[in-house]
Every structure is written in structure tokens, then in C-alpha cells.
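call fold(seq) -> C-alpha cells
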Amino acid sequence: MPNVVLVDKTASLDNAGAGRGLLRECRCRRPPGPGTEQLVRGRPFADLDLAELAAGFDGKFWPYVRILQAALPTLRKDGSVTFITAASARAAFPGTAGLAAINGALEAMVPPLAAELAPLRVNAVSPGGVDTPWWSRVPEAQRTAFFEGLAATTPVGRVGQAAEIGEAVYALAANGFVSGVVLDVTGGANLPMGR
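ret:
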């Protein structure tokens, strides 16, 4: 499910993350569309089901747009909005064109929204492979093999944890001088390492 993190900065945030700013997490309560699992598994572009792609946009892209539009009147002008995208937006993995389109569309909105909505700050966190309950739908042996494969591609040698994504969101929300940024939180998997 997509998360849109909206921060209305009413006071300074402390270093421990227990800030007095109002942090609200808005979740799309509708389960991901039927195409989401198929998009995650990947399939050749020639076989990409456009209805599944549309369902993927309905499950992730459009909720962000709707939630931000609805929240704008309640956000402080100097507040912060952080989208959660995915490293698939800029990865060149065969079979992931649908995921790249959805996450890339969100990332493409960050700079123009940061300019248009200023002084409200708009950023995104783009996670790589992260061990979250979302993956519980994948059989354990398959999930373990997948995570081991991902870990082997990262300089840090492991997949991420949900708390690390939260720390990145907090960093963007807390820093009043960051706007229009898509922050990669991938363990370095996106680095051109000559492999």
C-alpha cells in the first residue's frame, strides 16, 4: 500500500525523532489492484497487461495525488511532504517497465511540485529492496533467495529494514533546507560499480 507522509512542521523536530511536529501517515485503505503482484513479478513489455498497469497506477500513483491535493489546505506553508517511491523507477531490470512507469511518474512530480508549492517542501524516498511484511505473500524459501540475491548487489551486503526507510523520511522532513530531492535508500545498489 502506498504511504504518503505529510508533515506539518509546528515546532522543531528533535534528533531522536520524537519531534513535536505533527506527522501524519495517510494510507490508501484499498488493497493493491490485481495487477500489482503481476507487475512485481515482472513480465516482458510485449506481454504487459495494460489493465494491470492501470490497476498499479490506481493502487499507488493516484492515491498520492488525491491525498496531497486533499491535504494541501491543512498543511503549513513551510511544511514537508515526502513520497515513497521505489528504486525500480530508474532501474533497468527486464520485466519491470510497469513498476518503473508508476514509480517514475511519482518521482517526476517531485521537482515541479517543490517549485510550485514552495515554501512547502516536497521530496521522495526511493527504497531498494526492503524486508517488510509486504513480502510475506511470497513463499519463505523464494523470499529468502530473492533477498540474498538483492543483498549480493549492494555494497552494504544486505537488504534494508523498514526503520531505515523511516529514518530517511525523517531526515528529509526535519531538514528545512532540502526540497525537490529524490533520496535513494538502496544500500548503494544503484551505484555504477562496473559489475
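The radius of gyration is 17 Å.
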